[in-house]
Design goal:
It contains 15 helices and eight strands. It has helices spanning 13-17, 19-32, 50-53, 55-72, 81-96, 98-108, 124-140, 162-165, 179-186, 210-226, 237-245, 247-254, 265-272, 277-280, 290-297, and strands spanning 5-9, 35-38, 75-78, 121-123, 149-152, 190-191, 231-234, 262-264. Strands 2-1-3-4 form a four-stranded parallel beta sheet, with helices on both faces. The relative contact order is 0.15.
Amino acid sequence: MSQLKYALFTGCTAKQSTPELLSSTLAVADKLGIEITILEEASCCGASHLQDFDAFLAHVLNARNICYAEKLGLTMITICNTCQLNSALTKHALDSDPLLKARINEKLAEVGLEYKGSSEIKHFLYVLIDEYGLDKIQEKVVTPLSKFNIAPFYGCHNIRPSELHESSNGHENPYAPTSLDRLIVALEGKPVDYQSKNKCCGFHVELQANHTSEILAGNALVDAIDNKADMMVTPCPLCHLKMDTYQDSIGELMGRDIEIPVLHMPQMVALALGATEEEIGLKYHVSKAKSIYSNAKAL
């Protein structure tokens, strides 16, 4: 198999708030022989907040990010559902509207860039499944996750709207997604089937409606716990951040103890592929996750 090469748009969260998510991503790429070039010049995708305030500016920022991948002649990959959504929205808008593309390129010309539409955009989850291959990943497993019941949490922005994502996510069914489940099986873990796995974590309404946000996250956490999950795993840093850091306050709201490790997808893969404890960075989680590494390594 020829070496896979990608331009990585890290997004803000994995590069700043939770750098262990980036280090585990790079560890996975190293273990699998995937060549990653980080787009150091890239800016925030707008996080689905700028889009509500100034849609044109949001398209300019995302087109600028894509331009740097185009200059490298590489597919741009993301490790965040929201980054994937906003980048894909811009690409779709510019590729289908020549007048908008021309207006955006007028602004990009001010910084010496031109959006051409030559780079695809794909989440790392689907790179691993569709382009590297689950069978090849399974061959690389050195620390089987067979001790763990793992609850996949898909989040919203990788699978909805389906018509935007279907060409880049293997035509994932937004009502019954399977990609994370299949990845867990390839890593020899036991996927937990539970009703909330394709629901919303509530991150994007946290500031406007905190009560609603915590109920949404709490419903998913409780559902996973009640279905005997040892951990949750999500492909989105924002879902990870919401459900990892708010467990105490969510527990108070819901009147029960809530404690379950929440891993970002590359952390789970890195664990199975034999990455170091420091690369995976479970000690930085708010919910107790550090014991997962020692438990996985124990005979």
